[in-house]
Amino acid sequence: MKVYQKVMLGSAGAVGTGAVALQTMFPWLKYDLQLIRAGKKMIKFRDDMLKSLLIDKFEKMVQESPRKTFIIFDDNHYTYEYVDQMACRVANIAKSWGLGPRDCVAMMIQNEPAFIWTFLGLQKLGVAVAFINHNLRAHSLVHSVLAADPGYLIVGAGDALLEAVIEIINDLSPVKVYIQGLGCWPPPAGVYSLDPLMVTTLPVAISPTVRQDLTVEDTCCYIYTSGTTGNPKPSIISHHKAISLGCCMVSVGLSSSDTIYLVLPLYHSSGGGIGFFGALDTGARIILRQKFSASHFWSDCRQHGATVIQYIGELFRYLISQPPNKLDAVHKVRVAFGNGLRRDIWLEVSRRFQIPQIAEFFGSTEGTALTLNLANRPGAIGRMSPLLNKLEAEPKVLVKFDYATAQPIRSKNGRCIRVAVGEPGLFLSKVPDYVISNGTFAMYRSSPEAIEQKLVRDAFTPGDLYFNYGDVFFCGKGENVSTTELANIISALSFVHDANVYGVTIPGSEGRAGMVALTLHEGCNLGPQELKELYDHVCDQLPVYARPLFVRLLDAAVVTATFKQQKVQLMNEGYDLNKVKDPLYFLDTDRATYSRLTEKHLVRFLSSKL
């Protein structure tokens, strides 16, 4: 470390051959400098934005460029002026309901312009908006609405949404429900139609003085967790965080001259937070599509001149599964920004669609930090080098952990233990002082127990506070890779279509053992030859601790509505032959292959582990 510091101190004056030597000794330095430049740009932009709220930025754009297209949807162009008029109607309706700053309204609307102008109209009054996942039904839907404690629920157009609400209307009391899209049709019992109010309410401007007492620390909206570990929880998105989310794509140069193609759900932190808020931050134009369509994706981009696209999870897999087209690389897209892109898919996307830059990030809705890979390096999710850690106000660390609880292991003195380079570690980030109130970080609207589970207290010094992402990274030469990278390595096999890596408990053993759920390419089988090839591959490519102890063969990959791999159900079922009807295999070192797991093998296998 002393040598490193001396080199860095002397680097300021290094020129000519000295700079070349420095680059030779530290080849990763250029990536650090790239992130430092991007970080400075983001911070400066964010600090300028924090002088006002998102809605203020939007209203300024309305004044400066009223006829500029803000949204393209179903080939229709919606100008800033038109969207503002619709937002003013919403604002005046909400005002007639007696709503004002710091009240809450829940909103369940699909990807359409009404989502945007309904949100903006409520923001004009300083009303916090709960983004309800429009795919939820029954108990989960009731829980999500009531968890934000709203006075009203605004439901978007469509029979499916109307039916979902009617089924639970008796459980939503005292929340008043207004439906969009009914037109002249009378509303069902228990709900009201918003359409007559939108027709008769004048688009009179709302004075900004209505929200003059709001600060950037007040709540802008609630974005919910996925609910994979229980009911969805409303994460508090302050105006500060909303602006910060929108600034993420400033790292790849997002500006008012860009056009973002948004197919990710707006209720999600990627589509709504990074994409939509990013457009509000920068004045970029939005191409909005109600649902992702692999067959229309690139034609939409070409038709409307998309320059920036977002992805998450397995979205790109659906695109490369489409038949090759001579127009695949004919587009204006300069950058794809997202997370969860596997290395093998990344390489195919780069080859086939020729996007100049793919920028991968890691973060979470509730989290306090972000990692960025701006270097077009497939498989990596960002950097955590010594230089970057010294410069960051809220450092990020990888620590030793218990697989069973996803909690840090403490040393004898009660402190977290940093991992060595190449060793798997639990990802933590320091919680900024400005978000801590009464000794805690209020990340959720409710659920104090869930909040405490995400926090790590006294991690390295008395009184410090860290956020626990629950994700395991591997760090080598400053580059971070997650369990996704393990899946990347396994997916390199010619017969493997998808690999989902997770941990399972072993009785009598500490922590968790690795398990992978595989899906195969069409026409492929997992026979003796493939099992042997899988065994040789993981032994050659992975250290002992990272080799999957169990393999589950799935008919189809299990993913969420936002194209993320589902792990919780797979983890809970583990290798239990009573629960799992799919073929199971275990790492058979005696035979140097993966062998079919039976009750007889399982008893002998587990007894050797006790």
Automatic annotation (TrEMBL):
Biological process (GO), any one: long-chain fatty acid import into cell
Pfam families listed in its UniProt record: AMP-binding, AMP-binding_C
Keywords tagged on the record: Ligase
Keyword Glycosyltransferase: no
Chain ranges of the AMP-dependent synthetase/ligase domain: 58-385
GO molecular function: long-chain fatty acid transmembrane transporter activity; long-chain fatty acid-CoA ligase activity
Record-level GO cellular component terms: endoplasmic reticulum membrane; plasma membrane
UniProt catalytic activity: a very long-chain fatty acid + ATP + CoA = a very long-chain fatty acyl-CoA + AMP + diphosphate; tetracosanoate + ATP + CoA = tetracosanoyl-CoA + AMP + diphosphate
InterPro entries the record matches: AMP-bd_C, AMP-bd_C_sf, AMP-binding_CS, AMP-dep_synth/lig_dom, ANL_N_sf
Residues in AMP-binding enzyme C-terminal domain copies: 486-564
Family: Belongs to the ATP-dependent AMP-binding enzyme family.
Protein name (database record): Long-chain-fatty-acid--CoA ligase
Species of provenance: Candidula unifasciata
